[in-house]
Amino acid sequence: MDILIHRDELVRALARAQGIVEKRPTLPILSAVLLQTTPEGLRATATDKTMTVIGDYAATVRSSGEVAVDANNFFQIAKVLSGDIVTLTVIDNGRLEVRAGASVFKLSTFNAADFPVTPALDQARSLAMESGALRRVIDRVHFAVAPDDNRYGLNGAHVEDTSVSDGAVVRFVGTDGNRLCWAQAPYKGELGIGKKMLLPRKGLGEIRKLLDGYEGDVQIAFGDRAALVQYPGILVHLRLLEADFPDYRQVLPASFKRRVVVDRDVLREALRRVSILATDATNSVRFQFTSDALQLSARKADAGDGKEDVPVELQGEPISMGFNARFMVEVLSAMQGSRVALELGEALAPCILRDLDDDNALFVVMPVRLD
Amino acid sequence: MDILIHRDELVRALARAQGIVEKRPTLPILSAVLLQTTPEGLRATATDKTMTVIGDYAATVRSSGEVAVDANNFFQIAKVLSGDIVTLTVIDNGRLEVRAGASVFKLSTFNAADFPVTPALDQARSLAMESGALRRVIDRVHFAVAPDDNRYGLNGAHVEDTSVSDGAVVRFVGTDGNRLCWAQAPYKGELGIGKKMLLPRKGLGEIRKLLDGYEGDVQIAFGDRAALVQYPGILVHLRLLEADFPDYRQVLPASFKRRVVVDRDVLREALRRVSILATDATNSVRFQFTSDALQLSARKADAGDGKEDVPVELQGEPISMGFNARFMVEVLSAMQGSRVALELGEALAPCILRDLDDDNALFVVMPVRLD
């Protein structure tokens, strides 16, 4: 293997790879990025065994071949290389020689044949979504997926078909038990719905990163236990979680007794300020709704208390309830419109938040009991 | 106490205070900033018992008084306040009411009378230095002061008079045993030299921060066990370290066998690259000097090796020696000129580095033994 590659292109390939590989891999080869020449350039593959990302990058191939090197180590080096063009050559003893400017690095390598084979997906059906729509859906759902819950089914985003007569629609749903968010977008093609369609949290986050700066269609194919996400130059293989997602519709209140409309930024910033005086562990802030104002208040032992009034329009009876400020701020930050509606029941019933500029997403936050 | 203060001015006062107070104070009051009205505005005092910073800030005093509040807590709140003007009022129960925009915070307070009294300095003599000159001296010395050495005298910067017939000059010296740096600048007035003139590392760093953005003279007065640093609006009281600084002139070689001139940035960047493949613990890089080139090389087990050639001018015989890359990079970063001279003896003798654009500083790095 002997190739010339632009430093920025190499850094892009390795930045992606080192984000995928495990920090403390169970097998040393799992810390490696597999580099392979293709007729068009360089292919870089990284995996943590639950997900595999294969990316194609522009390079001039002088001699074909493949090699596996420690992804993080190579990334640290590539970032600081001088000169625009980097030469990558597998030399006699199997090491990878990296030349750029006045620098010469000779990197230890793994046997490329030991690199895990990406499993195939025996699934011909796939759907296509606009990259912007997929970014929007992930941004509204990813933060609400549980990071590492022992209710295993909460550790992924549930995917389902919510098509109506006039169009095909796919919905992603995430919840950690404290809040629940769904967002949906139209698709073309076929959504092959399996029984358990749970995209793991890390994979969803990595796909979101890969979508940055890409405009165009993204293809998604679901198999029984895996999904493929691809666009020109990128292919991601994701193992689906083998677990059950709860019947989330059960927690969505069918009706509400109170409806509050409020400016999203004003509420979020007021909440951020008041929550500085919320108790660290619970982060709970009192929301006292009256006909024209929401008074936020918090108290922290030994520190003091804070309160702030936010103008609102309330339909229904005044009520006082508590929320975890961080959960509420994160939901408000995942919205885009300037105004938001809160649909409330009694003090301990779930609160539904709707972005008044976006019908294709819904957010639920569970209240907390106030002392 | 009842005052109006611009939010930015309050944030400036509290940012300084929370940098001084201890994170885990031995006495609760040591986490507090003391706020006192003056005829001109607000005075804020913070201390960690080894140093005290007193700052004056513009404010409109409607009613005089004083109060002590948790510095970090108040800083977190002040940072996010809305509106330009903040009202600070001590209310009935002794709490401090903070009003800004739609927010009202009521902060717990300490008894202001419990706040430690800043000791007086019975020292009439003081010197004056240009703030830019003092910044320059601290920037060249502070990083080399030991952060927490059991050779207690290394934990401060040594101050001495190096005046010559045509002008008064003060020199600061710092060393952690691995490198040694001194820098000096002219002064006006009187330098009252005590026996042990050791400015503690943290105090030196805080003074450097306080000098940012200030142009004009800085007054420094040394007492037996403390120093006062002041400029209009700021007064810093520093306890000097009660320890002996080593006789640093003994480690400075009187002559050299080799002299190398090299571009500072080129050497520093090459060193940064090659050191990625240095062993983490020792960080050692081989410097192989020949008549026209310096070859840097490093090797890390299991990762690989790196090398790079840097053009140099060498007077004297070729030699190969080792340096801790981080120590060398930090010294090169503390210089300003484009070219630097390395004065070398044998492989394990101290290396003196001189900024060819600056006679008023000197840097020494100890070599390391190569395997």
Question: Short summary of the structure?
Answer:
Chain A has 371 residues and is an alpha+beta fold. Chain A is built from six helices and 26 strands.
Q: What is the strand arrangement across the widest sheet of chain A?
A: 15-11-12-13-26-25-24-19-22-21-20-23
CA distance, first residue to last residue of chain A? 67 Å
Number of structural domains of chain A:
3
CATH class of the largest domain in chain A: Alpha Beta
Task: Name the assembly state.
Answer: homodimer
The largest pleated sheet of chain A is described as:
12 strands, antiparallel
Radius of gyration of chain A: 25 Å
What would the CATH topology of the largest domain in chain A be?
Answer: DNA Polymerase III, Chain A, domain 2
| Proper CATH architecture of the largest domain in chain A | Roll
Structural class by SSE content of chain A: alpha+beta
**How many β strands of chain A by DSSP?**
26
Report the helical percentage of chain A.
10-25%
Strand content of chain A: 35-45%
List keywords for this structure.
homodimer, alpha+beta, DNA Polymerase III, Chain A, domain 2, 3 domains, twelve-stranded antiparallel β-sheet, 6 helices, 41% strand, elongated
Task: Explain what the structure shows.
The structure is a homodimer of 371-residue chains. The first copy, chain A, is α+β, with helices and mostly antiparallel strands. Chain A folds into 3 domains: 2-114, DNA Polymerase III, Chain A, domain 2 (Roll), CATH 3.10.150.10; 127-248, DNA Polymerase III, subunit A, domain 2 (DNA Polymerase III, Chain A, domain 2); 252-365, Roll (DNA Polymerase III, Chain A, domain 2), CATH 3.10.150.10. The first copy, chain A, contains 6 helices and 26 strands. Chain A has helices at 7-20, 71-80, 131-141, 201-211, 264-274, 325-333, and strands at 2-6, 32-37, 41-47, 51-58, 60-63, 66-70, 85-90, 96-100, 103-107, 127-130, 156-161, 169-175, 179-186, 188-189, 198-200, 217-222, 226-231, 234-239, 258-263, 284-289, 293-300, 304-315, 319-324, 339-344, 351-355, 361-365. Chain A has a 12-stranded antiparallel β-sheet. In chain A, strands 6-2-3-4-18-17-16-10-14 form a 9-stranded antiparallel β-sheet. The first copy, chain A, is elongated, with a radius of gyration of 25 Å. Chain A starts with a strand and ends in a 6-residue tail after the last strand. The mean pLDDT of chain A is 94. The interface between A and B is medium-sized, with 33 and 33 residues.
